[in-house]
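Design job #97: recover the sequence.
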């Protein structure tokens, strides 16, 4: 539980109300530790507190609130579900246009408060505790909107289902859905965390020509190669050298440059390496308020493009089971992103490793 952004999280015993209408209780099995949790932990994004963090989780259905029909939703008790961190409002301009992943009015952004402002979790003294993105997956159990719980195919490992809920949907979808990279195109992926490595897997899925993996940590490059990267670039302190190496691997620049870190310098690198007609796909999220710059004349003259990709343009109910099926067919080796299973009491340690760019995904198990 995070008392507020910018301070350490701690394990705390909370009470949890039963699910209300349209909600279910989930017994959590796995929760990934994503860099977006770290942005909040470090106070780089303004979010309310106190809040149960975690937005990359999976568990089993434990209880249904009034009006949730197991037969029509597939949410029978015991069923494995992956949790989505955007439940579309269904009414805004984006939802009406069929782009629910960009819904700005999602009830998920109330972080666990219902329409009347009540939370389901609270401290012993009775104060409200929020659930990050209304799923707060770093908890043994959580009450979530039924629409956030996506039934997964039998045999999906819970940790894989958890990662499908954020980094896999975000990275695979950025390449295959948002950018719709065609077969044979060249792709550079800058930053090889859970999101960037998922983008490498997505580039492999669509049969990209060259797949250039870029990171400042050598061990990340080795794994990227195993996941399908054809060229590896170790980013040193000089971005000019890095840009040259990316251009050399891609006959003058990648058709698509995916930024999966969220730093102005690497956003500028993604824009800088584009050839004429190339597209930068911005996936990494910076601290709020950061800006990046580029050479406007050159950008426009060369017909280049910038695309922001949020949640990999995911429609959770359709895409999560599809990604799980691809995993079960051996075409999306999501388990390779996991290098450590931890208890809730080591979340701060996992944040530390993320800050240093060290290791892969830590998975909290319960
Ligand atoms: N140059 C190259 N690689 C870098 C640099 C840099 N200057 N800085 C960081 N990296 C690498 C790290 O070594 C790490 O492998 O970027 C990777 C970032 O991975 P994670 O911290 O695991 O982040 P992830 O969870 O994948 O999220 C990436 O996407 O959704 C957003 O908020 C999220 O901004 C975050 C981004
Ligand atoms: Zn995430």
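Job complete. Output follows.
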């Amino acid at each position: 539980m995070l008392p507020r952004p910018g301070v350490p999280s701690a394990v705390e015993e909370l009470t949890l109300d039963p699910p209300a209408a349209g909600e279910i209780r989930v017994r959590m099995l796995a929760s990934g530790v994503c860099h977006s949790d770290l942005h909040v932990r470090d106070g780089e994004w303004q979010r309310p507190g106190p809040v149960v963090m975690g937005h990359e989780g999976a568990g089993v259905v434990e209880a249904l609130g009034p009006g949730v029909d197991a037969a029509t939703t597939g949410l029978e008790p015991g069923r494995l579900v992956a949790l989505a961190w955007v439940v579309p409002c269904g009414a805004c301009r984006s939802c009406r246009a069929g782009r629910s992943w960009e819904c700005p009015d999602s009830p998920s952004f109330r972080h666990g408060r219902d329409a009347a402002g009540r939370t389901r979790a609270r401290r012993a003294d009775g104060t409200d505790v929020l659930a990050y993105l209304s799923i707060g997956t770093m908890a043994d159990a959580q009450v979530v909107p039924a629409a956030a719980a996506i039934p997964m195919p039998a045999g999906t490992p819970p940790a894989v289902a958890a990662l499908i809920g954020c980094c896999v949907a975000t990275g695979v979808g950025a390449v295959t859905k948002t950018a719709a990279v065609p077969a044979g195109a060249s792709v550079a992926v800058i930053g090889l965390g859970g999101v960037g490595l998922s983008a490498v897997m997505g580039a492999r899925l669509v049969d990209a020509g060259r797949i250039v993996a870029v990171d400042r940590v050598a061990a990340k490059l080795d794994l990227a190669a195993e996941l399908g990267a054809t060229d590896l670039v170790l980013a040193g302190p000089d971005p000019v050298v890095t840009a040259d190496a990316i251009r050399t691997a891609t006959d003058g620049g990648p058709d698509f440059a995916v930024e999966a870190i969220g730093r102005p310098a690497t956003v500028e690198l993604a824009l800088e390496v584009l050839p004429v007609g190339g597209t930068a796909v911005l996936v990494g999220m910076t601290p709020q308020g950061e800006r990046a710059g580029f050479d406007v004349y050159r950008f426009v003259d060369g017909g280049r493009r910038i695309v922001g990709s949020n949640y990999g343009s995911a429609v959770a109910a359709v895409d999560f089971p599809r990604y799980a099926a691809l995993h079960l067919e051996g075409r999306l080796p999501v388990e390779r992103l996991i290098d450590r299973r931890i208890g809730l009491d080591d979340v701060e340690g996992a944040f530390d490793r993320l800050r240093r760019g060290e290791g892969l995904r830590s998975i909290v198990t319960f």
